[in-house]
Design the sequence.
């Protein structure tokens, strides 16, 4: 007699147990789609990964264990990652510690070992500070375009353009070009001709460059000691007035010329000067032979700058040594010199009894003369 099909209404609850069902008796075709829900699956059930659809959808994966896997086929060669996260927007991965303890990632290999303090560490500390750490005596390297740009050496020195930084910050240019540190702010602009630069140029000269129309200040002990004004000139110890600025310094030589000195043959005839701002200091060395007596007013010309033509602007010179051979009246008290206004000529005067003076003329008698003349005067 043929068996009659038993409907679900004819089966008492729990009447069919696992022992009543032969192995492999229920196939996937006997299970209606959606008929097994989460509550039908025992918490101790072992479901193979091959029985899970390749796409978890929007479901969260919560585990106290680990996630491992093999090649995903991404990349090629030996670069296939174990874990490949991909999305069209937002963050690809977020790690959160539900306490206030450190949350981080540790990367290690056989060289570093697998200990708690091994490898490379990237974390956020319990204080909220970001943390990048290499616990080994090795560098931390930063690269772009597959080329190293910066590294922090194991001793803490930072190198840009060098793999062996010699100081706390070491910048190296691999060519003979400029190597500058560039400082700008919102007022200066940010182009290469804005702000200020410090470094060496292509000729290995130290450069302290102010690109703005402003001063450069130098200080010690938290006090300004010197300033280079925007318009040029140096001021010192807090005096920033342009009128007081030292705006020139130079040294050089010149050839002094003896005027109305008769027939003079020189064996040494030199002049040197130092100019600091408006003040000119000169030294003249002369030696030679005079074979005759000159006539007219005697002067020495050829100074490197004209004297200032304002009242009191010319300077005074001092006669040092037996430079000239004058027939000086007995009433002469002393001989003085002066650089005449708006000229480069030294004049000579005799002071008579400290009451009057007169410019000397025709100073030389025949014979050998020698000596030096030094003095200072103001130029414009």
Sequence:
């Amino acid at each position: 007699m043929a068996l009659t099909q038993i409907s679900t209404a004819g089966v008492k609850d729990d009447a069919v147990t696992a022992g009543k069902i032969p192995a492999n008796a229920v196939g996937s075709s006997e299970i209606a789609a959606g008929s097994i829900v989460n509550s039908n699956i025992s918490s101790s059930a072992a479901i193979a990964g091959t029985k899970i659809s390749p796409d978890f959808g929007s479901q969260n994966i919560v585990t106290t264990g680990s996630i491992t896997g093999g090649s995903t086929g991404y990349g090629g060669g030996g670069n296939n990652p174990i874990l490949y996260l991909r999305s069209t927007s937002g963050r690809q991965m977020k790690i959160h510690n539900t306490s206030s303890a450190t949350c981080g990632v540790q990367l290690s290999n056989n060289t570093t070992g697998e200990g708690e303090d091994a490898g490379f560490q990237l974390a956020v500390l319990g204080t909220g500070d970001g943390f990048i750490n290499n616990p080994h005596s090795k560098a931390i390297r930063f690269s772009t375009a597959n080329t190293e740009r910066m590294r922090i050496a194991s001793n803490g020195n930072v190198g840009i353009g060098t793999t062996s930084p010699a100081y706390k910050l070491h910048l190296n240019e691999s060519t003979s070009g400029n190597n500058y540190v560039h400082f700008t702010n919102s007022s200066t602009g940010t182009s290469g001709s804005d702000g200020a630069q410090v470094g060496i140029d292509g000729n290995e000269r130290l450069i302290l460059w102010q690109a703005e129309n402003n001063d450069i200040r130098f200080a010690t002990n938290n006090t300004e000691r010197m300033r280079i004004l925007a318009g040029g000139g140096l001021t010192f110890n807090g005096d920033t007035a342009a009128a007081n600025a030292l705006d020139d310094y130079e040294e050089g030589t010149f050839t002094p010329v003896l005027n109305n000195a008769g027939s003079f043959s020189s064996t040494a005839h030199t002049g040197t000067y130092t100019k600091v701002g408006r003040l000119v200091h000169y030294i003249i060395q002369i030696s030679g032979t005079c074979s005759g007596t000159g006539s007219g007013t005697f002067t020495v010309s050829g100074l490197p700058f004209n004297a200032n033509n304002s009242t009191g602007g010319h300077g005074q010179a001092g006669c040092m040594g037996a430079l000239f051979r004058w027939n000086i009246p007995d009433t002469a008290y002393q001989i003085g010199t002066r650089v005449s206004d708006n000229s480069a000529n030294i004049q000579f005067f005799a002071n008579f009894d400290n009451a009057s003076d007169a410019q000397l003329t025709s100073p030389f008698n025949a014979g050998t003369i020698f000596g030096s003349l030094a003095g200072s005067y103001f130029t414009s």
Summary: The mean pLDDT is 81. The chain has no helices and 23 strands.
